[in-house]
Amino acid sequence: MIKVRFFYILIFISMTFSQDCNDNMLMYDCVGTWFCNDEATYGYDCYVNNEFCEDFNGDGIVDSWVGDGWCDDGEWGYNFQCEDYSYDCGDCGDGYSDDFGYCSHVVEMSNFEHDGINRQYYFYKPENLAENAPLLFVLHGYTSNANSIMSYSNMNSIADQNGFAVCYPQGTSDNYNNNFWNVGYAFNDNQTVDDVDFLTSLASYLQNEHNLSAGNTFSTGMSNGGDMSYMLACQAHDTFSAIAPIAGSMLESIYDSCDGVPVPVLEIHGTNDNTTLWEGDMENNDGWGAYLSTLDAIDYWVDINDCQENEDINFPNTDFSDGSYVINHRYYNCSQNNEVWLYEVVNGGHDWPGAYGNMDIDASSEIWRFLEQFTFTIGDVNQDNILNILDVIYLIDLILGGGSNNSLADINGDSQINVIDVVFLVSLILSE
């Protein structure tokens, strides 16, 4: 009888709730309990942008969301179904809201035709972004997607703070109907999609369409996206001038075919990563294909960049609960003023630090801290951060030597390096 009465009570509550709640404001918490985002009588105080965290319902408790500006101390862990709703912009991975606290800026997926395939991507451009601003590609992992990495990386907020644009491309489906980047995994050896050409073509399109820097375009990515970043450094370094893989690997096939051109590299990798093994897998025991150890991959880029000095920097272990800490193995005094960094996450797993796993660092912030060192002005051909006659001399030497893949030398942006670029460069220097 008690069970029957309780059943009817639940029905009554459900009917009452559904009648009173605007369907657009129906939310679910992390255990599946539904509640109304606009109804204080249900027991929650932050149904509006409650800036001062007032106890609206008078129960003596100020309940909180986990977003931005919504009484948000983060203690409750509500899931706002962000793909369907975007009322609390902080929870939904977006940094903009209107006067009522609702999202006014939602990043939408765009289409890009390549090799007869409709490819998709998210593109985020901060408001009032300067012309010739940098462009960062953020590549998702195997089985993941562009929306997921856009959410957990929080790279849009980093872009807002530092003045660059972000692209989150979507991979295609492999033999197992999983999203992937075609880097040469053993179980995808029959795949023919050319992701290097897709990403370089998309980069060129975005650079032209949004007046972004051709010389300051970078790539980062998680796991399979990190692998792809290594591939871009080897095969598309004229487009992607620096990379920052997270839990990535350098497959033997990528290593064997690498152009060997100096490129700045940051790798963040956990020593207990059980997916992309720290020690590598040259015997292909796990079926991904043979790949180098993390240290061997870094040594390769240290050699290519001709780095002469190194140091180890211990990050403060600010969060003992994550069971890990971070050491930055920094290699510097390299050719072309490049650097190579390895963030060794001791006891860390297959994680994006700051989003999950190690919480001593924020991987997204560290990525940009590394990459911004290698943002150069078009015309600064020798990359000494000074635009002067030395760049003219360097440019002439490049032309006489048969040209170069140095995008900073293509002053007029016509994809050719010739005497016309010298004329444009002289004009730039005189206008300084």
Helicity range of the residues?
Answer: 25-40%
CATH class call of the largest domain: Alpha Beta
Tell me the CATH topology of the largest domain.
Rossmann fold
Count the DSSP helices. Answer: 10
Give the spatial strand order of the biggest sheet. Answer: 3-4-6-5-9-10-11-14-13-12
CATH architecture of the largest domain: 3-Layer(aba) Sandwich
Structure overview:
The chain is an alpha/beta fold. The chain has ten helices and 14 strands. A ten-stranded mixed sheet has the order 3-4-6-5-9-10-11-14-13-12, sandwiched between helices. It has a two-stranded antiparallel ribbon with strand order 1-2. A two-stranded antiparallel ribbon has the order 7-8. The relative contact order is 0.07. The model is unreliable at 1-19, 29-33, 38-53 and 63-105 (pLDDT under 50).
Concise overview:
The chain has 10 helices and 14 strands. It is an alpha/beta fold.
Topology:
Layout (H helix, E strand, L loop, with lengths): L1 H19 L5 E3 L5 E3 L72 E6 L2 E8 L8 E7 L6 H8 L1 H8 L2 E5 L2 E2 L5 E2 L14 H15 L2 E11 L1 H12 L6 E5 L5 H6 L7 E6 L23 H11 L4 E6 L10 E8 L7 E7 L16 H9 L17 H12 L18 H13 L1
Parallel strand pairs: 5-6, 5-9, 9-10, 10-11, 11-14
Antiparallel strand pairs: 1-2, 3-4, 4-6, 7-8, 12-13, 13-14
List the main descriptive attributes of the protein structure presented here:
3 domains; ten-stranded mixed β-sheet; globular; alpha/beta; Rossmann fold; 14 strands; disordered N terminus; two-stranded antiparallel ribbon; 432 residues; single chain
